[in-house]
Structure formats: structure tokens, C-alpha cells
Design goal:
Elements lengths: L3 H12 L17 E3 L5 E3 L23 H29 L10 H28 L9 H23 L3 H5 L2 H21 L7 H14 L7 H31 L4 H14 L1 H18 L9 H28 L5 H21 L6 H5 L1
Antiparallel strand pairs: 1-2
Helix pairs in contact: 2-3, 2-11, 2-12, 3-4, 3-8, 3-12, 4-6, 6-7, 7-8, 8-9, 8-10, 8-12, 9-11, 11-12
Length: 367
């Protein structure tokens, strides 16, 4: 037991400036500061167990849960595998039981056309999204890899066509479809060159050529092909701006997540402008359906079955877009609805690629 003299000495040392009392109670590890005997606030080094989580206020647990991140990874991988299966086998499954002719290399062609549509959406959407973002940081450009992927996919379709037709490559260029695919490949390469030269807006002209060539390629039928080509040009452009623009806007929002008001303003500008592509897409899709799909084979043809699946997905994406717009008008967070909308639009792109491969339903209606 300390004597009175010792206790007095301890109290005297505690009152000396710059001295820290060591005989009293130790500060708690979870206290950010404690006071010395002279009233000064003395800082302590925080314990690792007391560090707050980013965006949270409480101490970090000894073992942070990793289930949400693992769930996202598993869902992403599962979605990619499902998408690949749909593209590779969708045309064959849709044609089952219809009596229609089998399309050679339908899965490979669907996959390559899905890449072409994705490349167009990413490139055109980035050009439109950059204008919506205005000033501020922008995400890394995907225009160059998208253009190169589109060129490779177009060239791949030429190879598939040559193999299926038992022609060499120069002879394939001489066919109608082969020549149009060559125009698409060169258009994507020119767009990539514009990006590489630092003139991304110049890529609009070769990309317009790609859209026109794809529209001509998709409508070789003898009945009013000019109307089908015009509808496809408008339809494909509107779809690319809707899906690709949303992708670029969401990437911009993630980059500006430290400024929520700025990120929300970018999404609000997109929501106001996306109404027109949605209206145009619905109008051209309806006209194309009335023109190309006879009423008596809606559910008995592969084209009709795939089209029904596409319409359901487009309706879901439209509902999500309207829900996001409504939340923005009420000053609520619409980021999650926009992300789900983008996922549904990605499925629409895949189904659209399958739709370009299945047989024309007219022969089934008139046989």
C-alpha cells in the first residue's frame, strides 16, 4: 500500500506539464481520446478492432462477411453462362416442333451477331452518354475495344458464311451477305481509327454505315425490303442509344459516387432523353412485327416464339425505366432500378441476335 508521501508524489507528477499519468486506469481502446490530469486532450492510437467500416458508424467485426460479394460473383458467372447457352442453342430450341428448316451454324452466327449489336450499343451509347455527363470525370472509354470486337465479329461471320456455303473467302465477298458483312467490318475498323486519332465523334459516319449494312443484310426478302431496311435502321439505332447510353451513364455514376448529387443529375438527364428512344423502339418494333410475322404462325414458328420472348423482356425493361423515372421525380434513389434495367436490356440484345438467325416465318404460313 502506498504511503501518503508516495501518493502525494504521484499527484504532483501528474500535475507536471507534458507528463502522462501511468498509475491510473488505462484508456479504453475504443475511446478516440481521453483527458490527462491537466485537462489536455491526449490522443491514443485507435485499435484495429475499433476502426469504422467505410460508410458505417460502428466498429468493424473481427471477420467481415463476404457473402454479398460472393453472391454477386456467382450470380454474374451464372448469368454469363446462361446468356451463352441462350445464344448458342436459342435458335434450335425455338425451332423445335415447327417443321422449319434447320439453319446451319445458327449458334455461332447468333453469338457473333450478339457481339456486333453489343459493340454498336457500347460505341453509340458512349457518344450519347458523354454529352449527358457534361463536365466532370468520365469512365474509361470502351469505344476502341468495342469497335475492334465488332470488326472481328463481322469478319467471323464472313468465315462462317464461307464454310457453310463451301466457298473461299474472295468468292464469299461476292455474295450479297458477304459483301455487306465486309462493309460492316470495314466500318468498325474506320470507327476504331477515328477513336485512335482522338476524333471519337468522327466515328458516327462509319457506324451509320454499319447500321445501314446490317439493316440491308437482315432484309433479303422480296416483299417490301426497303420498308424493312428503314425500320431496322431506326430500330437498331434507338436500341443502341437506350442500352449503350444507360451503360455509360451507370459507369459515370459509379465514377462520381463521391458526389451523389452530380451522379443523380446525370441519371436524371438520361431518363428525360431516354423517353424518345423508348417510343421509337416500340413504334418500329410494332410495325416490323405486323409486316414480317403472319398472325397464324405467331406461336408455331421460331420467329414468333423468339419475338414473344423479346417483347416480354422489352416490356420489363420499359417498366423498370418508368419506375426509375418515377423515383427520380420523387427525389428517391433510382440507381438499383437502372442497374436491373440494364441487365434486362442485355438479355434483349441476346434475344435480338437469335431473332436474326431463325427462319423467315412467311414460308410456314403459306405452305
Amino acid at each position: 500500500m502506498p504511503t501518503d508521501d508516495n501518493a502525494a508524489g504521484v499527484r504532483a507528477r501528474a500535475r507536471e506539464p507534458g507528463k502522462i499519468q501511468t498509475t491510473g486506469p488505462r484508456p479504453c481502446l475504443q475511446s478516440p481520446a481521453w483527458s490527462g490530469a491537466d485537462g489536455a486532450t491526449l490522443k491514443t492510437r485507435p485499435s484495429p478492432l475499433a476502426r469504422p467500416e467505410p460508410g458505417g458508424a460502428g466498429p468493424r467485426a473481427a471477420s467481415a462477411p463476404r457473402a454479398p460479394r460472393a453472391t454477386v460473383v456467382v450470380a454474374g458467372v451464372g448469368g454469363a453462362v446462361l446468356a451463352l447457352l441462350v445464344v448458342l442453342y436459342g435458335a434450335g430450341l425455338a425451332s423445335r416442333g415447327t417443321g422449319e428448316l434447320r439453319i446451319p451454324a445458327a449458334g455461332t452466327t447468333s453469338l457473333l451477331r450478339a457481339v456486333v449489336f453489343t459493340a454498336l450499343a457500347l460505341h453509340l451509347g458512349e457518344l450519347a452518354g458523354a454529352a449527358l455527363a457534361r463536365t466532370g470525370p468520365l469512365p474509361r472509354s470502351l469505344a476502341l475495344p468495342a469497335a475492334l470486337a465488332g470488326a472481328a465479329a463481322s469478319a467471323g461471320q464472313i468465315v462462317v458464311l464461307a464454310v457453310v456455303s463451301d466457298l473461299d473467302i474472295p468468292a464469299t465477298y461476292g455474295t450479297r451477305e458477304g459483301g455487306l458483312l465486309l462493309v460492316m467490318a470495314n466500318g468498325f475498323l474506320l470507327a476504331a481509327g477515328c477513336v485512335g486519332l482522338g476524333r471519337p465523334r468522327w466515328a458516327l459516319l462509319p457506324l451509320a454505315g454499319v447500321v445501314l449494312a446490317e439493316a440491308l443484310r437482315a432484309h433479303p426478302e422480296p416483299y417490301t425490303p426497303e420498308w424493312g431496311t428503314a425500320l431496322t435502321v431506326v430500330h437498331l439505332t434507338a436500341a443502341s442509344l437506350w442500352a449503350g447510353g444507360l451503360c455509360h451513364v451507370l459507369r459515370t455514376m459509379w465514377l462520381r459516387r463521391a458526389a451523389p448529387a452530380d451522379a443523380r443529375a446525370v441519371l436524371a438527364r438520361y431518363a428525360r432523353g431516354a423517353v424518345w428512344p423508348l417510343v421509337v423502339l416500340a413504334a418500329t418494333g410494332t410495325l416490323s412485327t405486323l409486316r414480317r410475322l403472319p398472325a397464324d404462325v405467331i406461336v408455331t414458328s421460331a420467329y414468333g416464339r423468339v419475338l414473344i420472348a423479346k417483347l416480354v423482356l422489352v416490356a420489363a425493361a420499359s417498366a423498370l425505366a418508368l419506375a426509375a423515372r418515377r423515383r427520380l421525380l420523387r427525389s428517391r434513389d433510382a440507381h438499383q432500378a437502372a442497374r436491373v434495367e440494364l441487365a434486362v436490356l442485355a438479355a434483349v440484345v441476346l434475344i435480338s441476335a437469335v431473332l436474326t438467325v431463325v427462319p423467315d416465318p412467311h414460308w410456314l404460313s403459306t405452305r
